[in-house]
Amino acid sequence: MAPNLSLFGRTKQLELQIDSFFDKVSEAAVVFRLGVRVYLKEGYTEEFVSRLDRVVELESEADVLRRDIEKHLYSNTLIPDSRGDVLGLIETVDQLLSEFEDTLWAFSIEKPSIPEELGSGYRKLTNMVIKSVDELALSGRAFFRSPHDVPAYNHKVILYEKEADKICLNLKTAIFDSSLELSLKIQLREFADRIDGIADLAEDVADRLAIYAIKRLT
Amino acid sequence: MLDPLVLIFLTSGLFLGWALGANDAGNVFGTAVGTKMVSWRTAAIICSIFVVLGAIVSGAGTSQTLGKLGAISALPGAFMTALSAAFAVYAMTKFGVPVSTSQAIVGAIIGWNFFSNSPTDMSTLTKVLSTWIICPLLSGVIAIFLYQIMKFSAKRVRIHMIRADAYKRVALIVAGALGAYSLGANNIANVVGVFIPAQPLPPFQVGGIILSSTQQLFLLGGLSIALGVFTYSKRVMMTLGNDLGRLSATSALIAVISHSVVLFMFASVGLETWLAGLGLPTIPLVPVSSSQAVVGAIVGISILQGAAAIRWSVLAKIIFGWIITPVAACILCFIGLFFLQNVFGMVVV
Q: For A52-87, what is each residue's pLDDT tens digit?
């Protein structure tokens, strides 16, 4: 019976690792949102740095988990039907964490001066982007336990991504309608695009997930 | 004292057992190994143990049916019957086509009947032939039924994909073990059934147990099947697992369960007695084709998934094998008996 017990032992461990990976994604999204809010309200402060540090930590913890999950899947030939899909999912979701990290690093390095009247636009955009990532994390979890629920979550990811695009468009219009220096306008536009790009990536992952879920259900 | 010639004559049956192991282990574990859910080594070990157990414990029922089809009382005749069936199966296995040992031995027995001018028991032959059609159909129906149950449960039971994978692996091993047991019970008649009427082996004592000639034949036959599993089954396993249709782990499990249930139904004396006790019609104890059972199951699943999932050219190759096998075994047996009698001067009838 020993081989079976060890099989279930490995299974339990892998389940926990996958759940933990998605926990890191959800947590990173929350911390990212707080980091952007702090920057918009108070600028480059110690609190912002602590948020950035936490996102960096979460990203590297998620990397370790990703490598462990991939190693387990392949060395123990688990889920031979779907391991390629799981690998693709974990790797693309991991890119979201990298985007959170890179965006906060960009705030930290460039320290853009965001006028107060544009702050609410960035806040709204960040909130909408985080909503899409939250739904994606739920969709990713559902893929492992109840693939039938994936389309419902994906629908919300796409909905929030579209809203984020609209907010981003309005924000960029407001930026270029303002009397700011052109160089600052371009810099602020890039930040808006960068944040909006996270929702675009979430949508790409959702599209992949939709196919993976269909494959699991047939 | 055992005549060494008896052992030489038995080699054809053991050769057939080896060919059966090489070919039919693929039916039991092919889908599991082909989908990489179970390693070939694990499959081979479990298959061998349970085939031998099935042959010894439950092999008697189907052997009687073959005896009715053609009671070959002379050992050289039994030798050539088994040898020609074995050659037919070996040739098909060599081409990677999953064939039926049952069909090969039935073809060979009819070849012996032709040669010896013995009448073929038409009621038994009809019973056997009908199972060639009923077996894959029944297996396909069971597979469709199981597939729908699995699909229904999958929507309602939320098990993590990784845990479900572990459950499927254990289920594949358990179903494979049952399949191997049923294969041993159902198909041992194909391997040594023709030797039973001749009673070639003297009783043999192991510890406090005395093994009769029939029991020794079952044991030897079971071991020869196990040898075939270990030495030559890998290729057929890959054909069934990968070539016929792309199978998921769930489909692999359903195929093995359907195959095992059908083989068990056609081999179980206990089930026959139970049905008779309830006044229900009994299922004939006939050596059925495990190849047909598993192909029937895979086709059943593929139909549910859309016929596009079936590779028709591979299926046609398999069906061609089913037709050519009994015909080839029959002709080979007739020619072989002629040589054995007229060239070597043996008594074959």
A: 999 999 999 999 999 999 998 888 778 877 888 999
Across the interface, do A15 and B169 touch by the CB < 8 Å criterion?
no
Q: B159 to chain A nearest CA, in Å?
A: 5
Is residue B124 within 8 Å of residue B109, measured between CB atoms?
no
What pLDDT digit, counting tens, does each position of B168-224 carry?
888 989 999 998 998 898 889 888 888 888 777 888 888 788 888 888 899 999 999
Alpha-carbon span B165 to B305, nearest angstrom: 20
Contact A130, A32 (CB under 8 A): yes
Q: Which residues pair with B211 in a beta bridge?
A: B204
Contact A145 B158 (CB under 8 A): yes
Residues of B in contact with A83 (CB under 8 A): none
Nearest to A148 among B155, B159, B166 (CB): B155
In chain B, which residues have pLDDT < 70?
A: 1-2, 96-98, 238-247, 307-310
Enumerate helices (H) and strands (E) in chain B, giving the number of each: 13, 2
Residues of A with CB under 8 A from a CB of B: 4, 7-8, 11-12, 14-15, 18, 77-82, 86, 143-146, 148, 216-218
B328 token code pair? 């080839």
Task: Answer whether B242 touches A (CB < 8 Å).
Answer: no
